[in-house]
Amino acid sequence: MKKLPLLLALLWSPALFAASDLLQIYREALTQDPTIQSARSAQIAGQEALPQGRALLLPSVNLSANTQYNDVRTNYSGASIFSSARRKYNSNGYSVDLTQPLFRLQNFAQYQQSKLSVEQADALFTAAKQDLIVRVSQAYFDVLLTQYNVTLAQAQKEAIGEQLAQAKRNFEVGTATITDTHDAQARYDLAASQEIAAQNDLEISQNALLQIIGRQPGELVTVRGDVPLVAPEPSSMEAWVEKAVQNNAEMVIARASLEIANEEVNKARGGHFPTLDVVASYSDGTVGGGTFGANDQISKVIGLQLNVPIFQGGAISSAVRQAVANQEKARQDLEVTQRRIAQTARQSYLGVTSGIAQVRALQQAVISNQSAFDSTQLGLDVGVRTSVDLLNARQLLFSARRDLAQALYNYILSRLQLSSTAGALTEADVVQINGWLNVGAK
Domains in the chain, ordered, with CATH? Predict the structure, then answer.
């Protein structure tokens, strides 16, 4: 395994013990990021689909009670052996009813849907956690890169400022024209505006991280030590595509959606089938007074209840056609998701492999620019190079280091994206990358 010395440390002066690393920021985001908190609540809510679906197969018991005040006036017309009367009394009662489904095709289908809904909820939360790792890493490295850009802009401004000062001195002694001074002034003003833009970009990237963790990130630990440039394992692109198609959270969700649509067809067709339930009831009622005085009534019933649908105005047939159409939609949506995930896996794989080549090439560029800077420094000491030459050499060195840092960050993010696409991204990957930040730190 080859290692890459990054030579990135000299741009950072704050004490590391006060800085936050990637793992700290990620674990803080787990509790502070509203997106992951929303996903966690959605998962908890989604898991309740299973007990609700199971309840359709279990008995239901209802208790009802009543009490009534009765004021009854009875008048008889014509000849009667009864006399008119008025009676006032209370009647009370309660009943317990039980229904146990024996055969309801719709309920069985909905129970299967509830299990698939839980699977979807879990997959959505897994996708949210993997997305958080990628978002945090992207925001973290964006801050580091914009810090490099600020340093580079400041170095460029300093170099051009020295050139401007030299142009003014040459104009004063008559060895340069006013045009040379104006040209140097224009380039200095441009460099100053670029420094302002770089500072703005830094603030924007810090605010992006603030949106995730809810606070200003402060000082961040940059990459120190050696970072392994390792090709994806397995080395076959199509093997990664197959892993992604099988394990990617979006694929799990899409497959579950198709299964839910299949069960929806079964549920709709179940409307044509009869239902059979066990029913039982117990009731106890007391009438305080009536025509024949007070009485108490107790009823116990148990039996089977069959319901056979005959005609519902075509609603069931329409529901079946609708469910079949949605089933086909879910099937096509699965195909779209599969093709997109496969393409993303290929792009992420190529991002890792090409990133390795790019980092190695820029490593050589840093070494070359470091040599050029050292030579210019030596030339300045012996009087064959000017301070402007040294400043320009330093600017090129900083620029090469910035490009190397950007390529390195892109390589790391491509690795994370590839693991995420394959459904294998976990906190362990963050721990590994965080080790690259802290190895060799002083």
Answer: 3-67+92-284+295-438 (1.20.1600.10)
3-state helix, strand, coil in the chain (%, to 5): 65, 15, 20
| Whole-Å CA distances, 276 to 23, 54, 133, 301, 314 | 58, 17, 51, 16, 22
E strand or H helix at 282, and its extent?
A: strand 275-287
Helix, strand, or coil (residue 284): strand
Residues 6+ apart with CB under 8 A from 215: 32
What is the tens place of the pLDDT at every residue in 90-145?
889 999 999 999 999 999 999 999 999 999 999 999 999 999 999 999 999 999 99
In terms of Cβ atoms closer than 10 Å to its own Cβ (0-12, 13-18, 19+), residue 384 is exposed
115 to 57, 118, 320: CA distances (angstroms): 14, 5, 22
Instruction: Look at residues 126, 129, 107, 130 and name the one whose alpha carbon lies nearest to residue 118.
Output: 126
CA atoms of 428 and 241, how far apart (whole Å): 22
* 297 alpha-carbon distance from chain centroid: 62
Total-model pTM? 0.83
Burial class from Cβ neighbours inside 10 Å (0-12, 13-18, 19+) for residue 303 reads: exposed
Q: What is the rounded distance in angstroms from the CA atom of residue 366 to the CA atom of residue 364?
A: 5
What is the Cα–Cα distance from 235 to 349, expressed in whole angstroms?
9
Select from 102, 110, 114, 3 the least CA-distant residue to 49: 114
